[in-house]
Amino acid sequence: SIKTLESSILENEDDKLAMAATIGSALLENKFLKEQLTIVENKLACLQCKLASNEAKIEGMAEEEETFLGKIETLSQKLAEAEAQIEKEKKNVMEIQNLSEDHDRKQEHIIEKYVTKSRDLEKQLLVL
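The structure corresponding to this sequence follows.
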């Protein structure tokens, strides 16, 4: 019975040592995990700051986009107006060219009449 008691005490001591080792390991793992949690929380805070900064940049870019879209619309309207003016000017040039060609033909016809009349008069003078 003393032997039973001694072996029971030894078993309890082994259990205590195993339990102490398990508790020590758990405490070390807990400390490691807390350190990892702190690192992850710091990274999260850094990422949240970057996210806020990027969101502000995106908002600024969206405002710039609206400004540029307005400018593009204005320039597109001006371009359309300029193209319409160019077409109008081309039409005017064609009209002027046609009028000029008509005028040239009329002048040529008049000159031909005068040349013919002048020849007729020369012939009449020669006859006299």
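The chain has one helix and no strands.
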